[in-house]
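dumping this here so i dont lose it
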């Protein structure tokens, strides 16, 4: 599933999607884990750094992490997001 052009106000530079979750994150309300189906590397405006967003099945952002480059953000997936191999796409 293709993401929107922007997530959380940041432009999508690269993305990966899987029908099977890459992994899970804890819910804020203790309702159980939330499946991560989308990963996106994004940039706010002219910032040099990028953010990797972990998203649910509707491209809602669940978590983010900041990186110096798109390649770094794509390569440094935490162990919790390795249940399925990420195949990266560009818009």
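and the seq i came up w/
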């Amino acid at each position: 599933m293709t993401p929107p052009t922007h997530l959380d106000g940041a432009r999508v530079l690269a993305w990966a999607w899987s029908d099977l979750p890459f992994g899970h994150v804890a819910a804020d309300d203790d309702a159980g884990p939330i499946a991560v189906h989308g990963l996106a590397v994004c940039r706010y405006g002219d910032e040099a750094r990028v953010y990797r967003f972990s998203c649910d099945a509707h491209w809602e952002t669940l978590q983010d992490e900041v990186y110096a480059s798109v390649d770094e953000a794509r390569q440094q997936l935490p162990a919790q997001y390795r249940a399925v191999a990420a195949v990266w796409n560009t818009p």
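The longest strand covers residues 10-17.
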